[in-house]
Amino acid sequence: MSEILIIEDEAAIRRVLTKIISEENESYNVTAVADGLLGIEMIKNHDYDLILCDIKMPKMDGVEVLEKAKKIKPEIPIVMISGHGDLDTAVNTMRLGAFDYISKPPDLNRLLNTVRNALDTKTLLVENKRLKKKVSKGYQMIGESPAISHIKEIIEKVAATDARVLITGPNGTGKELVAHWLHEKSDRIKAPMIEVNCAAIPSELIESELFGHVKGSFTGANKDRAGKFEAANGGTIFLDEIGDMSFSAQAKVLRALQESTISRVGSDKDIKVNVRVVAATNKNLKEEIAAGRFREDLYHRLAVILIKVPSLNDRREDVPLLVDFFTKKISETQGTPEKEFSEAAIKLLQEYDWTGNIRELRNVVERLIILGEKEISANDIKLFASK
Q: What distance separates the 2 farthest-apart alpha carbons in the chain?
């Protein structure tokens, strides 16, 4: 449900706006008030997804409402409603942070398009904020092996550039972690990093997910929707498991890389995007190219910088550091005392065949913390870590 607040002193305009917006989409819940003072009280006490605010009002004009609202709830898009003589003021409100403005009497299509676009923007801002919080809690790259040290050196050199990066390696090795490090150390850190798992999205929906769609472009497309490329504008898009992307979507991604433009499904309108692309795969893309399943031109666009993440079996010297890291993290999350691993236990873990890589190691450490004794012994390893 999208919560929309209308602040408008003219009763007739208030009724028209409420009726038009409410009837457009049953998920729009519209509240209308007659002056800016009451509007500010409503903003303080309720969570709104969009505000439409008149400019000329008694008690408190729309410009003051805009300035106060932006201090109270800066993430809410605010659309200003302007009379003919208020157009200069309306344009000025854009500089103060307004999302857009509409003129009186409102044009139906212009009004509804503005409402949809503003709500899409609010959704993207919320998602971006959530993702930034996730990143800020720290993706740490644990390890001092030559292979991991080499990856860290590459990241330091290329993170500040806009060079595209292709990350390869088996499942569970930490390819996503490398992507986050690239973003966090880049000049794009203030903009979002948007992740797309290409293997988890049905082939018939991948283009809509990446590029968005317009209302009516396919069954179920009941409103315009921005895609992940637009959400990542100014930041980074991480295309995980890109080897599983459909051939038609590959062509569109290639165009986005070549021209820095995308178009939503069902639209012929080009949208400029400024996005750094980082991709990852557990597949051998050269073999996929030979088999006709992956575009060679896309591969060369993506693989400007290649980073190969080693399996855990190829960096066994990092196992003690990883065990220590996971032990602290899991104990903190569960609120339990930290357990220690004996030297013999660590030695056995280093000899283990880690087919599931770091992901498997973390699961084993958690199992040992739950089931093992205060000090994890070699016997605990044999009991609880065996396959």
A: 83
Q: Does residue 157 sit in the same domain as residue 300?
A: yes
Q: Which of 353, 363, 276 is nearest to 322 (CA)?
A: 363
- Would you say the C-alpha torsion 229, 235, 239, 240 has a positive or negative sign? negative
Lookup result for tokens 């003219």: 10
124 with 230: CB under 8 angstroms?
Answer: yes
Residue 133 lies in a domain: no
Residue with tokens 């968005």: 212
**pLDDT score for 30:** 95
Same domain, 337 and 220: no
Q: What is the residue whose two structure tokens read 């003021």?
A: 89
DSSP states of 7-63: E-S-HHHHHHHHHHHHHH-TTEEEEEESSHHHHHHHHHHS--SEEEEESS-SSS-HH
pLDDT score of 137: 52
- Is the pLDDT at 133 greater than 60? The verdict is no
Residue 214 DSSP class: -
Q: Find out whether 359 and 171 touch, Cβ atoms under 8 Å.
A: yes
Can you read off the two tokens belonging to residue 91?
């344009």
Phi, psi (degrees; rounded to nearest 5) at 21: -70, -45
Which amino acid is located at 319 in the chain? V
| Same domain, yes or no: 117 and 20 | yes
Structure tokens at 130: 């959530």
Domains of the chain: total = 3
**366, 279: one domain:** no
Tokens 């850190």 -> residue: 189
Domain boundary, last residue among 62, 94, 124: 124
pLDDT recorded at residue 374: 86
- Provide the pLDDT confidence category of residue 138 given band limits of 50, 70 and 90: low
Give the Cα separation of 226 and 229 in Å (integer).
Answer: 8
**At a CB cut-off of 8 Å and minimum separation 6, what does 263 contact?**
211, 269, 270, 271
